[in-house]
Amino acid sequence: GENVEQHPSTLSVQEGDSAVIKCTYSDSASNYFPWYKQELGKRPQLIIDIRSNVGEKKDQRIAVTLNKTAKHFSLHITETQPEDSAVYFCAAINAGNMLTFGGGTRLMVKP
Amino acid sequence: DTGVSQDPRHKITKRGQNVTFRCDPISEHNRLYWYRQTLGQGPEFLTYFQNEAQLEKSRLLSDRFSAERPKGSFSTLEIQRTEQGDSAMYLCASSSADGSGSTDTQYFGPGTRLTVL
């Protein structure tokens, strides 16, 4: 089955700096890669996603890149703000429609 | 609120008791998923329905767990003879297959936090 690894597990940045979170996946058949943000005690919320036929996608301060050959994808947040502080999860889906999640990254943005 | 809803939000039970959780998906979403999340970890897939058919079950889903979606709308997840290791957040998600074959986006509910004493 699919295995998704995520790094780093914790990330502390100063407000206004950029943050990068990286994930690798094992199943070359995986074709959809969403990123979820989860605040304490709340539901995972989709913030951006990318499909395997696209190399990069951007939405305001958030961007995701995908390298299918290397089987890794990354989340980039620019101009970080304190409200970006949360746990971020990457995930991958293969043909079975089951999301396999990474272990999460706790992002702390210091004012 | 037109998002995924779950009930109850919290459940405390004693070991050995049975519990049942309910999930109401986004209206007209034909796919519904159950995940389990323990503290500090990412959600883990349990099972998934397309309409009323249960199409996938994880090996995590022991025979004490059963899920149903009888009319293709809401779903229930029952855990029999609960154990302390069942303590977790149980998340439901839903999506809409558009028939094009592309993978659809899953939207999560707020979860049911289960504590087994």
Topology, element by element:
The complex is a heterodimer of chains A (111) and B (117).
Chain A: E1 4-7, E2 10-14, E3 19-25, E4 32-38, E5 45-51, E6 56-59, E7 62-67, E8 72-77, E9 86-93, E10 99-101, E11 105-110
Parallel strand pairs in A: 2-11
Antiparallel strand pairs in A: 1-3, 3-8, 4-5, 4-9, 6-7, 7-8, 9-10, 9-11
Chain B: E1 5-7, E2 10-13, E3 19-24, E4 31-37, E5 44-50, E6 53-57, E7 65-68, E8 75-79, E9 88-95, E10 107-108, E11 112-116
Parallel strand pairs in B: 2-11
Antiparallel strand pairs in B: 1-3, 3-8, 4-5, 4-9, 5-6, 7-8, 9-10, 9-11
Describe the model:
The complex is a heterodimer of chains A (111) and B (117). Chain A is mainly beta and 111 residues long. Chain A has no helices and eleven strands. In chain A, a hairpin with a 2-residue loop joins strand 6 and strand 7. The radius of gyration of chain A is 13 Å and the shape is globular. Chain B is mainly β. Chain B has strands at 5-7, 10-13, 19-24, 31-37, 44-50, 53-57, 65-68, 75-79, 88-95, 107-108, 112-116. In chain B, strands 2, 4, 5, 6, 9, 10 and 11 form a seven-stranded mixed beta sheet that branches. A four-stranded antiparallel beta sheet of chain B has the order 1-3-8-7, with no helix packed on it. In chain B, a hairpin with a 2-residue loop joins strand 5 and strand 6 (53-57). Chain B is globular and about 45 Å long. The mean pLDDT of chain B is 92. Chain A binds chain B through residues 6, 31-32, 34, 36, 42-46, 49, 51, 89, 91, 93, 96-104, and chain B through 4, 31, 33, 35, 40-45, 48, 55-56, 58, 91, 93, 95, 102-111.
For the largest beta-sheet of chain B, the strand count, sense and barrel status come to: 7 strands, mixed
Mean pLDDT of chain A: 94
**Molecular shape of chain B:** globular
Shape of chain A, please? globular
> Are there runs of chain B of 5+ residues with pLDDT below 50, and where?
none
List the helices and strands of chain B in order.
EEEEEEEEEEE
Structural class of the secondary elements of chain B?
mainly beta
> Multimeric state of these chains?
heterodimer
Number of helical stretches of at least 4 residues of chain A: 0
Largest interface: A-B, 24 and 27 residues
Order of helices and strands of chain A: EEEEEEEEEEE
Share in helix of chain A: under 10%
Number of helices of chain B: 0
Share in β-strands of chain B: over 45%
For the termini of chain B, the CA-CA separation is: 33 Å
Rg of chain A, nearest Å: 13 Å
The major pleated sheet of chain A works out as: 6 strands, mixed
Computed CA radius of gyration of chain B, to the nearest angstrom: 14 Å
- Rounded mean pLDDT score of chain B: 92
